[in-house]
Amino acid sequence: MKVLATNVFDEESIELEKWAKINEVDLTMTREPLTAANVDQVQGFDALSVQQVVPIGDAAVYAKIASFGIKQIAVRSVGYEFVDLAAAKANHLTITNVPVYSPRSVAEYVLAQSMRLLRHLNEFDAAVAKHDFTWQGKMAPELGELIIGVIGAGHIGSASAKLFHALGCQVLIDDPVHDPELEKFAQYVSFERILKSCDLITLHVPLLTSTQNMIDAAALKQMRPNAYLINAARGGVVDTPALLQALKNQTIAGAALDVWAGEGPYFDYDWQNKPLNNPELEEMLSLPNLIVTPHIAFFTEHSVHNIAFTALNDAILGATGKAVRNPVG
Alpha helix (H) ranges present in 251-300? Predict the structure, then answer.
């Protein structure tokens, strides 16, 4: 069995090699995402696994993948918006993802960024680096006094809600599916109520037509001027220009973004000593009340292990004609 895993990062390669040794599989890893420009590399392999944010390509790319005998594309992430599901289906390609790898990894990231925002730690860091040791203007509330809004209460949103509740916060949730277990420590309310009532809002929704730019200028205007926003879901659920304007105008107090609609060429790449040539990203990095991280909320040892093993186990199942565990679409 020959398996191709594309766009592999260093820490992931260790787990993929472990998986290959355990399963006695011939594994080839590449460092670039799968696109029309390099799709021919798939020829000769029995199974294919990808993780990326840039689109795989048009229908012709999927037809070519199928023509090489590939039956399935195993996505090594929760999100799969870069996959054209219609083109995959038309070419009889099954798509799988990793729906649960470590919800707590992202929830812990959200908690960490909540504290950085609320306690102005990024601002103190910048000031201390300039030998400014003053406190003025940076007094903070205590976390347990706040109302936290969780938009999207799947595995990750639920884990976030539980962490905040454990720290004494009142937690409000907006999700079309009501989980009786969550109702023990959180209240289900409308999207509009979360915007108007919460001191901090964290996003945990997939990128769908219905969630594209769900946090737009109108939504931001409904938020409290002392409220914070955290997005560790998908970049496209936030209207970035509208958020930047709200941060500059102090419509909201601050935000933390682990994802960004334009992240493809930048996140997980080294741009030191090179011009970014992206005015939006440059503006994001210049704002003192915005924290940017390069899509690393998931990035823990436990998480990377689970992603590698879950995705490639499904890749083998699909390649051998067996029922896969995590189909999407």
Answer: 279-286
Q: How far apart are CA 285 and CA 87, in angstroms?
A: 37
> What residue spans of the chain are helical by DSSP H?
10-23, 59-67, 85-90, 103-118, 121-129, 155-166, 191-197, 217-222, 240-248, 279-286, 301-319
112 Cβ neighbours under 8 A, 6+ residues apart: none
**At 134, phi and psi to the nearest 5?**
-80, 160
Q: Where in the chain is the domain with CATH 3.40.50.720?
A: 2-101+301-328, 103-292
Does domain 103-292 fall under CATH 3.30.499.10? My reply is no
Given 76, 204, 234, 305, which residue is catalytic? 234
Mean pLDDT throughout 192-207? 97
Rounded Cα–Cα distance for residues 116 and 110 (Å): 10
Q: Does 183 qualify as catalytic in the annotation? A: no
What CATH homologous superfamily does 2-101+301-328 map to? Answer: NAD(P)-binding Rossmann-like Domain (3.40.50.720)
CA angle, residues 180, 188, 102, in degrees to nearest 5: 65
Catalytic residue among 76, 116, 204, 295: 295
Tens of pLDDT, residues 140-155: 999 999 999 999 999 9
pTM exceeds 0.85: yes
Amino acid at 320: T
> Rounded to whole angstroms, how far apart are CA atoms 176 and 326?
22
263 classed as catalytic: yes
* Active-site residue, from 193, 263, 283, 305: 263
